[in-house]
Amino acid sequence: MKKAIYFFSFFFGTIFIFIFINGFIKSRKEYGSKYNFTIDEIKSDAKGNLIFFDSVGNEYSFASFTFNKHDKLGISVGDKVFKDYKSKNMIFSRETEDKYSVYYIQKPNGMVPFSFYSY
User: Fold this and answer.
1) Using 50, 70 and 90 to split pLDDT, how confident is the model at 116?
2) Beta strands 59-60 and 35-38, pairing class
3) Around Cβ 46, how many Cβ atoms within 10 Å?
């Protein structure tokens, strides 16, 4: 009986470590990336997280910035998304009277905080 408990503990511990490492790698890559696109389409995945598409068809889903369809953030098609290299904030702008104005700033809210590697 003890062997089964040790096996399941090791098994689930290993899975948890791999999930954390994957999240860390994706989050670090996002931290060093620049995003500047206009949302052309919005879909949600099985967990309800939003997936953004630009006019070229590129898909954007984030590990460090989670957006859920139930958050009521007001993100819609036509909004501009901007994040500079090594910036901790993602900025959403909406076009009003032929110019974009900032209406929402998202701080990282993913599993791995940027403070782990932003030194």
Assistant:
1) low
2) unpaired
3) 5
Q: In what order do the strands lie in the sheet with 90-96?
A: 35-38, 80-83, 90-96, 99-106
How confident is the model at residue 57, as a pLDDT? 87
- For 53, residues 6+ apart whose C-beta sits below 8 A from its C-beta are 39, 40, 41, 42, 43, 59, 60
Question: With contact defined as beta carbons under 8 Å apart, do 38 and 55 qualify?
Answer: yes
AA letter at 89: N
**Mean pLDDT lowest among 34-38, 67-71, 99-103, 104-108:** 67-71
Identify the pLDDT of residue 70: 67
Q: How far is CA 2 from CA 5, 9, 13, in A?
A: 5, 10, 16
